[in-house]
C-alpha cells in the first residue's frame, strides 16, 4: 500500500482524491489546516492564505476555538472519503499538561483518529510540544508529527530530539526533512530510535537519497499537499531508491506500522 504520510485538507476534498489517484497513492495521512492555498486564483489571494499560514507558524491563534473550524473541515473530509484519508489532529500548544491531555483524549481518541499533528511550534518554541508527547504516551504510543521546515530552527530540531529521548515510546515525526537544516535532521533522527523523518518538499534531491540511506526504516514518503504534489513526491522517492523492501517501507510500509494498519 502506498501512503502519503503528510497532507492537508483540500477544498474540495475530491480535488485531493484526484491528485492521489494520479500519483497511484492508496491513502493519505490528513492534517487539519487553516490556510487553503489551493483556493487562491491569483497572487493577491495567495498572499491572504499565506498570511494565515505565517500566523499559524508563528504560534499565534493557538486557542481551542481557533482550531475548531479546521477540525470541522477535517471531520468532513474523513467522513466523505474514509477509505482514502487517515486522520491526524493538530492540537493547540502552550495549554498545560492537564488541558492538553483532555484535548488529546476528547478530540483525538474521541474522534477515532490515528495520531497528532502537524504541530507548529513557534521558532525557538519546540519545547512546547512536551505536554503533547506526554499525552500521546498516556494514550498508547500515538505518533506525533511536528513541522520541521522554516521557521523551525536547528535548535528546535535538537530540542525535539531531546524530548524524543525523554518520551521513548512515542514515535516523533519531523516533517519536511527538517527544511534547510536537513543535515542535522538526518543525524538527529538517525541517532534517536523513536524519531522519523518525513521527506516532503525537499529542495535538494540528494538530501532525500542520503536520508533514505542513513535511516531506511524511519523515512516516510509525503507530499505536504497542497504545498507539494503527490506525483512529484513519489517520483522523487522512486528516483533515489531501487525496487524492493526499502522503497516499499518508505512509500507506505513504515507509516502503516506506526498507525496500526494491517
Provide the β-strand percentage band.
5-15%
Which CATH class is shown?
Alpha Beta
**Oligomeric status of the shown chains?**
single chain
State the domain count. Answer: 1
As a percent range, the share of helical residues equals 40-55%
Please state the CA-atom Rg, rounded to the nearest Å.
17 Å
CATH H-tier superfamily: Metal-dependent hydrolases
Number of helices: 10
Order of helices and strands: EHEHHEHEHEHEHEHEHH
- The CATH architecture category equals Alpha-Beta Barrel
What is the SS-derived class? Answer: alpha/beta
Classify the fold: give the CATH topology.
Answer: TIM Barrel
Q: Biggest sheet: strands side by side, in what order?
A: 1-2-3-4-5-6-7-8
Shape: globular
**Cα end-to-end separation:** 10 Å
Which regions have little confidence, pLDDT < 50, spanning 5+ residues? none
Per DSSP E runs of 2 or more residues, the count of β-strands stands at 8
InterPro entries: Amidohydro-rel, Metal_Hydrolase
Keywords: Hydrolase
Organism: Streptomyces monashensis
GO molecular function, one term: hydrolase activity
Blueprint of the fold:
Elements (H helix, E strand, L loop, with lengths): L2 E6 L4 H11 L3 E5 L11 H15 L6 H17 L4 E5 L7 H13 L5 E5 L10 H9 L5 E3 L7 H13 L5 E3 L7 H9 L4 E4 L6 H10 L4 E2 L9 H11 L4 H15 L3
Parallel strand pairs: 1-2, 2-3, 3-4, 4-5, 5-6, 6-7, 7-8
Amino acid at each position: 500500500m502506498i501512503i502519503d504520510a503528510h497532507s492537508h485538507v483540500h477544498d474540495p476534498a475530491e480535488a485531493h482524491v484526484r491528485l492521489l489517484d494520479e500519483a497511484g497513492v492508496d491513502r493519505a495521512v490528513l492534517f487539519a489546516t487553516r490556510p487553503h492555498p489551493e483556493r487562491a486564483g491569483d497572487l493577491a489571494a495567495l498572499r491572504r492564505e499565506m498570511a494565515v499560514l505565517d500566523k499559524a507558524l508563528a504560534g499565534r491563534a493557538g486557542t481551542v476555538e481557533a482550531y475548531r473550524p479546521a477540525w470541522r473541515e477535517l471531520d468532513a473530509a474523513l467522513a466523505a472519503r474514509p477509505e482514502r484519508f487517515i486522520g491526524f489532529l493538530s492540537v493547540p500548544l502552550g495549554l498545560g499538561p492537564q488541558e492538553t491531555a483532555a484535548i488529546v483524549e476528547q478530540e483525538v481518541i474521541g474522534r477515532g483518529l490515528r495520531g497528532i499533528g502537524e504541530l507548529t511550534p513557534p521558532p525557538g518554541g519546540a519545547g512546547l510540544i512536551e505536554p503533547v508527547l506526554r499525552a500521546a504516551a498516556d494514550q498508547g504510543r500515538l505518533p506525533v508529527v511536528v513541522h520541521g521546515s522554516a521557521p523551525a530552527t536547528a535548535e528546535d530540531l535538537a530540542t525535539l530530539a531531546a524530548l524524543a529521548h525523554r518520551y521513548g515510546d512515542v514515535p516523533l515525526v519531523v516533517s519536511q526533512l527538517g527544511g534547510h537544516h536537513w543535515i542535522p535532521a538526518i543525524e538527529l533522527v538517525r541517532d534517536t530510535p523513536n524519531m522519523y523523518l518525513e521527506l516532503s518538499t525537499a529542495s535538494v534531491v540528494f538530501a532525500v537519497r542520503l536520508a533514505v540511506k542513513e535511516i531506511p526504516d524511519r523515512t516516510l514518503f509525503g507530499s505536504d499537499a497542497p504545498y507539494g504534489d503527490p506525483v512529484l513526491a513519489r517520483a522523487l522517492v522512486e528516483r533515489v531508491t531501487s525496487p524492493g523492501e526499502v522503497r516499499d517501507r518508505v512509500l507506505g510500509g513504515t507509516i502503516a506500522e506506526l498507525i496500526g494498519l494491517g
